[in-house]
Each structure stands twice: as structure tokens, then as C-alpha cells.
Amino acid sequence: MITRITVDHRTERHPEKANRPDNPIQRKPAWIRVRAPNHPVYHETRELMRSNGLTTVCEEAACPNIGECWSQRHATMMIMGDTCTRACSFCNVRTGHPDPLDATEPNRVADAVAKLGLRHVVITSVDRDDLADGGAAHFAAVIAAVRAAAPGTTIEVLTPDFLRKPGGAEVLAAAHPDVFNHNLETVPRLYPSIRPGARYYQSLRLLDTVKRLAPTIFTKSGLMVGLGEARPEIMQVMDDLRIADVDFLTIGQYLQPTVKHAAVAEFVTPEAFADYAALARAKGFLLVSATPLTRSSYHADADFAALQAVRAAAA
């Protein structure tokens, strides 16, 4: 059965957004539809996350693809807690004062990866501006633990920007994940309203530094559309990412989590996404995923295999 997934519109988890004006949530167009999460393996995956005390961005960010991904034992682990130190207007993750880091977390994540038998795992986190290194060393510890527990699993990380955290890029490059992902999220003009705690050129510099220090790591970034950006602005972001030698670009439709989040300015058509994909390929990205339901970690294992194939063919 095909049905619409609705996210939790309550605002109790977002007290920091309480003073924002309400933005009514628009009805989604016919092309944004997903299957209800009712597969037995979905429930098995959910129970494994619970039993290991793990947080997933799939749940915290109200991802529309959770039913499909968890039914295939794909889950994106979110480390360093479920509370972010920033309050981006697009994001459904809780904002506040995080708890101290849990030293047992790297091994718990590694245990779950081994039990799920993952070929490829994606590890992301909240922003931790309260930590001296932004959590870079904790990422490295998780990567090391997964490599020890599941040596056949390839590792993708989706990290914060490490703004004003010198050395973060160097620590991640030294840990050498198979894929390093950091999302630009939107065009520079919209950063003050959509991503106010971040800086566009810091994000670009992070991607560039990791690639420069570890050229064999695949680098990746993602954009949301439907926030009021213009096509020439998206094209300029593509050019900036190619200058930073980013390999893989994802583009997906922004979906408003609650009435306290940024409003959807436009539901971008599948045809427009196909146009963006063609533009990105023409600009030289090794791989492009651009559809309304594309998310950073969606089909990450298949995408990694495709990246490897493209690199091998070019060698």
C-alpha cells in the first residue's frame, strides 16, 4: 500500500523555536509518496537500535525513507547524542545543551554494525559546538571501532562543519573513512535564515581540506531545494563544490518538519530534478543523485559501489 508519511507536528521538542511565527505545512504533491513502514525487518532493525541504545538520524530527522531503508537493514547512526547545539530552521533534531560524550558509544555502534551485517554504514552526528574539537576525535574512535568489529564494512561519515574547531578536518582525514560527507544544505544567500550557525565557505574549506589531505577518500555533499533558491545559485554551488574536488552530489526536496520550521517555498518537480542531475554530471561530479526523496544517506551502499566502479573505469 502506498501512503503519505506524516511527521510529528508537535513543537515540544523544539522549545528554542517557540518564538518563530507559524508556517502552515502545505499538502505534498503526488510525486512525494513513500511506503508505510510495516516490513518485519523494519521492526527488527528498530529493535536492534533500541537494544544497543543507539540514536538514528532516520528517526530524529523524520526521514521519509525510513520504511524502505530499515526494511533493507540500512540505518544511519547518529552519534554524540540526540541534542544539537545549533537551531537550523530546516532541521527536526532537538536543540539544547547536550550530555557529555559516552565513551561506550563507539563500541555500541560497532556492535550494531556487526549484528546487522552491514556492507556499508553511514555515521553522522549532531553539531557539538560545546566540545573543543567539535567531536572529531569521537568520530575517529567510532571509525576505528567499526573497523575492528566489522572489517568488511565500508564507512561513510556525515560530519558537522567544525567551525572554529582547528584540526577537525585533519583528524577525520587521518581516520580515513571511505566516504567523507558534509552537506552545504542550501545556497549562500539563504544561510542567515536557514543555517544561521554555519558559514558557507567554512563548509567548502572542510571538504577541500579532507580531499587535499586524503585524495583517495570519496567526498560528498548535499543540497536541499524548495527553500526559495534560484537555479543560477544552485549552479554556482555546483561549481564551488567542483573547485573543492567533491566527487558526489545529492539534491533532494526540503520537507517542512513542523509549523515552527522554515516554510517550503516550492515543491520542485521531478523534471527539474532531472535537469539539476544533468547539469551536475556535465560539471564533472563522479556521481549525482537528484530526486524529490533523495537524502544524504539514501541508497548509500549502492552509491558507494557506483563510485568505486566509476573510479575503477577511469583508472
Q: Care to describe what's here?
A:
With 315 residues, this protein is an alpha/beta fold. 37% of the residues lie in helices and 15% in strands. The strands form three sheets. The protein has an eight-stranded mixed β-sheet with strand order 3-4-7-8-9-10-11-12, sandwiched between helices. Strand 7 (120-125), helix 5 (136-149) and strand 8 (154-158) form a beta-alpha-beta unit. The radius of gyration is 18 Å and the shape is globular.
Order of helices and strands: EEHEHHEEEHEHEHEHHEHEHEH
- Beta content comes to 5-15%
What does the largest sheet look like?
A: 8 strands, mixed
Whole-number average pLDDT?
A: 86
CATH architectural grouping? Alpha-Beta Barrel
Q: How does the overall form come out from the CA principal axes? A: globular
Rg over CA atoms, rounded to whole Å, is 18 Å
Could you name the CATH homologous superfamily? Answer: Aldolase class I
Estimated helix fraction? 25-40%
Count of discrete alpha- or pi-helical segments spanning 4 or more residues? 11
